[in-house]
């Protein structure tokens, strides 16, 4: 058969069949590698062929502190080069979790009691322990006793761990050991219920719970007044630290601080972590860790939270549960956990309310302490979209370092990935800061301290009714005092209602009835603006009558309201009148 009469598809198939099979395998391998290179955000060739100048740093150019400190921080200015065989943010983060190595030592434990009956495990690693070889056996805590005298001048750094992390996490042990080796006394402030300590009160930690850090900082400052106090926060711990520094402002005893891989805005982070498949993997992994935390404290969660929602996947094995979570898009995630647990325990109305109130980005402008912030732009957990660039640049106390790569709390460098860039940068920054004149000195606050989760920007409007009947929004009362405020409001409203009823019997005029109607319309709209969130018919009705009585005394306001009503409705009345007359004229014309 003539080849010209064959179908072009048959000719193409015949040509492709002549190509060796191994050529197809090589092509498939190249395509797969290219796809994975992009999908896993590998930056090997970028590191080799497109070398950057150094770490981008954002700061206030007019700040003497930033200019002086940054001129001495060589590591912070240097370019971070990831370990070649884990040159991906996902490889870096996975290596930290599963393959990270840590030095062998033991902490000295001190159980700190909070004012509400809670227990916080403070794990100490002294400079003397590292230099003197008193680290002991790994895993066996040494007694604290009086390891530090009250006249000790060695600087202390308190470390706030990340979500579901404790002092035994590899990255925290590396951080503590490196700092202690360079002349610091390190104390890791474990979150409530972590570090092998039970929860002894009805209070759990969350992403914005600053009260524990505030209490620990005050305790350390009061007990060791001669030792400068610094702080480091990692991941969620960085969010707690920055929020605390913004809440207390000049009143904090912290002399300097570092925030590493801060999520900044929890609402943006919540949207980001559910966006792509890889991010959802981190979401599910973190959820499993939190479910394990909840299982440790099941009796309290059963009483305070929605335990039926929390335990959804607890009965499954870890491996099967993780695969199921990946395959089922609507499976349990961090947001569901916060909905079933955090919102119930800490009395948040919704999950979004919790995220908004606990985000540290809103507190950046009020930070009065020298603060170094390190956030990798390729962080797979805390997105760069949430970084408050302008706020950090405007604050003269903040230095923001944003390496192009590094993953989440990883930053492994060297051929063997034996060191972490951010730990070296933090050690250098704090070392320069503690010997400089720019360390923060605590000042007495003129106004009261912000309590945890109850800052001025967090508060919803609370009602305050004075003795003369004036209704105002009372700030700083706190959410837990809202019920008492409403009860007092009800009692005062009942008294005013009794007085109004007696006055109404004595004054019965037609003109006052008209003004009553007009003022009721005005004051009802005013009430909708001032009393948001209070839904109680027993409160609204007496208040409306009382406000109507006040408006009767001001006839000018009533007539002004009537004029405005007529003036604004006049175009509508004119249009209706014109339409009616036009319709009548059409009916008359045929009759004529």
From TrEMBL:
A Pfam family: Hydrolase_4
Q: What is this protein called?
A: Serine aminopeptidase S33 domain-containing protein
Q: Say which domain of life the source belongs to.
A: Eukaryota
- Origin species, per record, is Populus tomentosa (Chinese white poplar)
Q: List keywords of the entry alphabetically.
A: Membrane, Transmembrane, Transmembrane helix
**Record flagged with keyword Transmembrane helix:** yes
Q: State if RNA-binding is listed as a keyword.
A: no
User: Domain Serine aminopeptidase S33, which positions?
Assistant: 154-260
Indicate the transmembrane segments per the record.
21-40
- Under the GO molecular function aspect, what terms does this record hold? monoacylglycerol lipase activity; short-chain carboxylesterase activity
